[in-house]
Amino acid sequence: MEQFEKIVGYVDDFVWGPVMLMLLVGTGIFLTVRTNFLSWKNLGYALKMTLSKEARKKGKGDGDISPFSALTTALAATIGTGNIVGVATAMALGGPGAIVWMWISACFGLTSKFSECMLSIKYREVNENGEMIGGPMFVMKKAFKHKKTGALFGWLFALFTVLASFGIGNLTQSNSISSAINETAGISAKAVGIVITVLALAIIVGGIKTISKVSSVVVPFMAVFYVVAGLVVIFGNIQNVPSGIVMIFKYAFHVKAVSGGVLGAITASMMRAMHYGVARGVFSNEAGMGSAAITASAATTDNPVRQAYINMTGTFWDTIVVCSITGLCIASSGVLGSVDAKGEIVTGSALTIAAFKTVLGDFGAWLICIGIALFAFSTILGWEYHGEKAFEYLVDTHKYNIVYRVIFSLVAYVGATTTLNLVWSISDIANALMAIPNLICLLVLSGEIAKDMKVFEKEGKRL
């Protein structure tokens, strides 16, 4: 068993290695150039639409939930522990410059997120229950000229999405909640597991409409809550902010490896910053993974391109806003590069907590605990919908969705009370593998994406 765990660990390291990261970012760069940088040029337009009153209404077109609800449900899955733990880990292992590479990957990730959402809305279907269903699996099945290849790719994507939903979307998240609450408040993992399971089941049983209603309230609240708390920490260390920003950019492009001084126990270089920044950035915003496109397919819209612009902003809110708050808190607090009692580098949630404590004291630890709990629970809700629709695609009917919902909720208890490193590694591999067919699909259909964007630019924006 130990040998098997090592093999799985090696596979996990390989699939999330340089080749996968180059494929993810490379696809974003290619799509951005091929679409004439329209995703960048229209970011202001997209943000304006997202915050408009119309986005909260089910007005023009067909769909089950409002454009804003589709975005917040997708954000529920992406704004998670990666925004708190992932950023801290990237900066501790790759140096402060890792945050710059998170920003760079997010800029190109905008187009990847736009493209997968636009195609999924364009090729969505109505199931037996009258609900909108879509996602990369439907795009592959319907848009590929070689139908057998498209069907195989779609089936593989759906399978890996279901596996990832239980692992990355559930087990790891519920474990993060129980660990954070147990360490901060001393409440037992079993008690936390029961609460998570009951709450998740109560919300999930209602389907996408209930999930979207909860997400449209919880996601904006938790994001604002965390951003405001982070700004308090940043302003509390305002005298260190200029030097912190200089440090971030200096070590993002420092070719030679450097350690010591302001870096403490950290070794920083451009390659390390690039590797950890891109890896954690992609893990956080999921651009190119195809997961957000499943939720986007449920949106009420009269034009796939219009809704795709709204969903595209998810990458902006997740990485450019929320991740940046964590990064600036850490960079301005002076705790980066510190070591714990065992002489090991402080990383993960412990590093973010240490940064918040510099201004807020022990109350800062409670804020991070609340933040992790909210972020992780919302991720469970968002990923349930992703996994459910992938499951529905595999069994070709909605009749067994309730079975999936109940099992998914019960698995949250297992995650909260058990550390399953092997399961986490396998689900991490599934998360990477679901991206491969999605990225191939985006590259194959890049001409169609560019064409639809240009048509919308001339005609759609005037409507």
Percentage of residues in DSSP E strands:
under 5%
Number of domains: 1
Helix/strand order: HHHHHHHEEHHHHHEEHHHHHHHH
Shape call? globular
Computed Rg:
21 Å
What top-tier CATH class fits best? Answer: Mainly Alpha
CATH superfamily: Amino acid/polyamine transporter I
By CATH, the topology is Amino acid/polyamine transporter I
Describe the strand arrangement of the main beta sheet, using strand numbers: 1-2
> In angstroms, what separates the terminal alpha carbons?
60 Å
Low-confidence stretches: none
Number of strands: 4
Derived structural class: mainly alpha
Alpha plus pi helix count? 20
Q: Provide the helix percentage.
A: over 70%
- State the CATH architecture: Up-down Bundle
Mean pLDDT: 86
GO cellular component, one term: plasma membrane
Family: Belongs to the alanine or glycine:cation symporter (AGCS) (TC 2.A.25) family.
Keywords: Cell membrane, Membrane, Symport, Transmembrane, Transmembrane helix, Transport
Main location: membrane
Structure summary:
By secondary structure, the protein is an all-alpha fold.
Task: Describe the fold and architecture.
76% of the residues lie in helices and 2% in strands. The protein is mainly α. The protein has one domain (2-462): Amino acid/polyamine transporter I (Up-down Bundle), CATH 1.20.1740. Strand 3 and strand 4 (267-268) form a beta hairpin. The mean pLDDT is 86. This is Alanine or glycine:cation symporter, AGCS family. It is a multi-pass membrane protein.
